[in-house]
Design goal:
about 110 residues, two-stranded antiparallel sheet, 1 helix, rod-shaped
Length: about 110
């Protein structure tokens, strides 16, 4: 039985990068990418994030793209600052003219 090899295997050698520097470089790049992804924060519209450094409040992030220091800084609270509409039930009024009337309303608030 004869085995036919093509391409890189036809040379009979498969070269693999096993040097110490190559392993260090790949590990360093992976760690750098992980730190970049942990440090980039996107705050959506209508929200605000608080940043804590070692558990103590540092600043508030407004909507947009922000960079924080991974491991040292972390997001403490995710606050919703959108307006909330509360319906006020209809109320019947009896003014001094002795004619019944109704009032309706809405209440806009931010928490």
């Amino acid at each position: 039985m004869r085995l036919v090899m093509t391409g890189a295997l036809a040379l009979g050698k498969v070269e693999m990068i096993t040097s110490g520097f190559a392993i260090f470089a790949v590990t360093f790049l992976v760690l750098a990418l992980i730190l970049v992804f942990l440090g980039v924060k996107v705050v959506p519209q209508g929200r605000e994030f608080t940043v804590e450094r070692f558990g103590r409040y540092t600043k508030t992030l407004r909507p947009g793209l922000h960079l924080i220091i991974p491991v040292v800084d972390r997001i403490g609270r995710r606050l919703n600052v959108m307006e909330q509409v509360l319906d006020v039930p209809t109320q019947k009024l009896l003014p001094a003219t002795m004619q019944w009337s109704a009032s309706m309303g809405w209440y806009f608030t931010r928490f």
